[in-house]
Amino acid sequence: MNIQKLLRVGAITLSILVVLLVVHIYWVTRPPKADVNNIAMARIDFKTALNQQQGASITAWLYAQKGVTHVLCNTQTNIAVFTFYPAQVNATQLTAKLSKELGLPANRYLPSNDELASGCPVLPNLAQKKLIQIAQSVF
């Protein structure tokens, strides 16, 4: 009788683990939904040296664009970093428009695959965090 009970508990535990694995694989492999509340960050590298006046005009131009929320322009490193709503604006197109309208050669910095792989993964949503907390408390 004890062996049957042990086998039943083992089968139930294994079934729960398989279901958790399937749910985890589904969440990890599904494409992310475009959320209008998501904010992203982009970097623009300028190919020429910038002066303070150019830095101020870049900052003002970026702030005037729809979907841009915050801008930092460093004239010493020739880099501008800005946050934006991806649902409202495309950072690559915005970079091309900035370069054309202000006459400053620039390109958007995109990290390499190695740089992306070495970054810290962030959980995309609260439901996944809750599931992980439940799994950690059970096991």
Structural write-up:
There is one protein chain. This protein has five helices and four strands, in the order αβαββαβαα. It is of the alpha+beta class. It has a four-stranded antiparallel sheet. A hairpin with a 4-residue loop joins strand 2 (68-74) and strand 3. The model has no long low-confidence stretch (mean pLDDT 86).
What are the secondary-structure elements, in order, as H or E? HEHEEHEHH
Strand order of the largest sheet: 2-3-1-4
State the shape: elongated
| Mean pLDDT value | 86
Structural class label: alpha+beta
Tally the helices: what do you get? 5
N-end to C-end Cα span: 26 Å
Brief characterization of the structure:
The chain is an alpha+beta fold and 139 residues long. The chain has helices spanning 2-29, 52-63, 91-102, 113-117, 126-138; strands at 40-46, 68-74, 79-84, 106-109. It has a 4-stranded antiparallel beta sheet.
